[in-house]
Here is the input.
Amino acid sequence: MEEGYVKKVISENIGIIEFYHPKSNSLPSYLLNELNASIKEFCNNDEVKVLILKSAGEKVFCAGASFDELLALKSFEEAKEFFSGFAKVILTMKNCGKFILTRVQGKAVGGAVGLIAASDFSMASVQAAIKLSELSIGIGPYVIGPSVRRKTGTAAFSELSIDATTWHTAYWAREKGLFAKVYDTNDELNNEVEILAEKLAGYDPEATRLLKQELWSDTNNWESLLTEKAKISARLVLQDFTRDFLKKFKK
Here is the structure.
């Protein structure tokens, strides 16, 4: 049975999107597709001037891809379509003519870090540690790589990618550019996200669109780039090493 949800609401020209899954807010394909559709809908809605992306709960922002779904992949085409899920959301966020604020209240793993990096302004609590664990299971952060490297630089992306089992603190992520601001409590975080969203909702939409275009310059090739990255991940996830690891992890 499909579990979890993506909720969306518009309040005073602010489009708020919240996702949830009982397994640490992981994002199986059906939720990724729903998330992508919700972001796209708000990006094309003239009533919405700015977007807030957040997840439910207190301690975990998002656990990334679904391990159960990874283990169930049988063919290259299935695997490519699965990894294209994160690529589609990143591309939608990139192409949106409105600023996307991401509220990170807890830990973020793998693909979740890519989504944070693809947002235009991320604000976090001190609990928002991050990790790119892909290499440790036999693949790598290929699809989200361009997004994370664009935000943090190659050195920080290398550290995250290679040291695949270490949690990096919210302050480390702020220092590297992934988070713009870090707050001591979730209440303070929520309040500051709301204040910034209200300010941005009152700015000129055309000025916002042009500034976002400027900030995302030199990314016009990302559709083909992320497609190729999804193919790399699809090939690796079907290897014996990765499949054996996932089976052991599930047990």
